From TrEMBL:
GO terms for cellular component: plasma membrane. One of its GO terms (molecular function) is transmembrane transporter activity. This is Branched-chain amino acid ABC transporter permease. It comes from Thermoproteota archaeon. The keyword Membrane applies. It is a multi-pass membrane protein.
Length: 184
């Protein structure tokens, strides 16, 4: 039974890693540089969850707000920092250095606000148990979100015109431009 519980916990953690890796690999594929501030963007989402859980908001709403906060922050960073640099013709090294700097800034702002203390989310959750295997409703929700996000992204990239155009621009920018695909 312990092996099966460890396996279930590994699947749940794998779902979280799946979401993180989708964001990181998608960013790399689109922007052509590794965004080293990706972990800090996830941290912004985590602290959003912490704040909203302290306000006793519903976990599903908290989760949605956390994703939205991270996504909006990433979009703002792209619009204000990365996009102007890309338009100026900056290379991958310069963009990586800026992403490291942005990560350091975000990390220190969070540390100034919250300190270096470790916080834990207090989530009211329903635990389901079957033959000694335990899983919480929040963990089921994480699995549903992770795997449905992966499936949605796969279908988007393989079955829609915008997804196929996106993949074309990732694979061969010049060919995509010649076919009339707007790569900006």
């Amino acid at each position: 039974m312990i092996f099966l519980q460890i396996f279930i916990n590994g699947i749940i953690l794998g779902g979280i890693y799946l979401l993180i890796s989708i964001g990181l690999s998608f960013t790399y594929a689109l922007l052509r540089f590794p965004n080293f501030s990706h972990a800090e963007l996830i941290t912004i989402g985590a602290y959003t969850s912490l704040i909203l859980c302290m306000l006793n908001l519903d976990f599903k709403l908290t989760l949605a707000a956390s994703f939205a906060t991270s996504a909006i922050t990433a979009l703002l960073i792209h619009i204000l920092a990365f996009n102007p640099m890309i338009k100026l013709g900056m290379g991958m090294v310069e963009l990586m250095i800026v992403s490291i700097g942005i990560g350091i800034i975000i990390r220190h702002v969070i540390q100034e606000i919250w300190g270096a203390k470790i916080y834990f989310l207090k989530i009211v959750r329903q635990i389901y148990e079957l033959n000694g295997i335990r899983i919480a409703d929040s963990e089921i929700l994480i699995l549903i979100i992770a795997f449905s996000s992966a499936l949605f992204l796969h279908l988007l990239l393989t079955k829609t015109k915008i997804g196929i155009a996106l993949r074309a621009s990732i694979e061969n920018t010049n060919l995509a431009l010649s076919l009339g695909v707007n790569i900006d």
